[in-house]
Amino acid sequence: MFLRHRQVRCCRFISQQMSGYVRKWVVDFRIGSDGKLVHKVTDNTSKVVDGGSEAVVPVLKYLPSPVTSWIDRHIAQHLLPAGYQHGSVHKSYFRYVGYHSIAAVAGAVVMVFSTQSMLYAAGLGAGAIPVAAALSWVLKDGLGQLGGVLFASFVNKNFDADPKRHRFLAGLTLDLAAALETLTLFFPKFFLPLAAAANCGKNVSFLAASASRASIHNTLASSGNLADITAKAGSQTTVAAAIGTTFGALISTQIGSDPTCMAVAVGCGTVVHLSCLYMCVRAVAFSQLNQQRLELLIDEWHRTKKVLTPCEVSKIEHFATKYTPRVIIGPDLRNVLTTSGGYNTLLRELSKSNYFIVSCNGGIGLLLSSSAETGDIIKGLFHSMTGSKKNAELFIDSLQEAGWDLSQSYIEDQQARVVVHKDADSC
Asked: Which of 113, 104, 71 is nearest to 240 (CA)?
């Protein structure tokens, strides 16, 4: 009778370490009503290796087991990374994917109406294909290609320093391009300049989106599964675009060629697209430092002696509007030598601490030695904003404890270092 009500649970001997997580099974033994020994095996995977976090699709938690099993076998395995139930992705992954998918659907709807507007404006919607219309269509593609090339050369490293901002601006640029395409229906005489500018905007948008998306996917990959996340992101976008295109085509049959209705449809789709894009980008928490994140962290530390986590900073950092830094890193030497205490003092200070604080155009400037490392830059910015070197080392230690990755940072917008020679004292 005693054994009939006793359960013996064994889990530590039945486990399998997978990529990024440990899969565990709980085996329940009991004596059945017929006196025979029976057991039940339950998947109890919950612990994640290497600081990952358990992640489960929120909706699936409330569905019956047979339904979730069917979804996992027939849908999730084609659209979600392997091991998504067990922490192979960041905890913000599903929030990001949910909003991003809605944004992709809305964006596809907008593209349907903007393209339809251009077709009518070029004269292709009336059944005829004039040579001038076809030539204009080709020319607008050729002229638009130049925009992407020029944009990539100007932006350069900023894609890595502020991927959130560039991802949001990519979506905004795409919507502006769609608006220009829609305007061709109202001003058909200006088809070529409007369509060329729109195509240029599209190329800039696609380039910025693909470049910034790489950093976002790398952050969401908790177990080194960047390739899998990128591949599934392509599948998710394809499915969402197909749904959006179908939905847009159905609506367009009801709207017809009325310019006002098309403009309203594009406007509504743009609002949904940008709103969801903002929310999905907001959900991503980067653990690498840029100047904005570091200044927010220093401000919070100066007030409360607390270091915010990457998730906490992601909720307050600005990316929809341009951030104005409080400290100018790498100011022009010609503007600061007259107020920095002299050339020799400048070089001696850089030799000692690898940074030097100066007054720059009414603000604070931070000059860095060519040998300055990430720790030196953090100390210099900490000193510039708090007015003291005290607790700088403690602040850096607290950053690492809070989950910030100091092995790679993007604190400098553009590197403008001062070279300190060995004979600096005799200069």
From this structure: 104
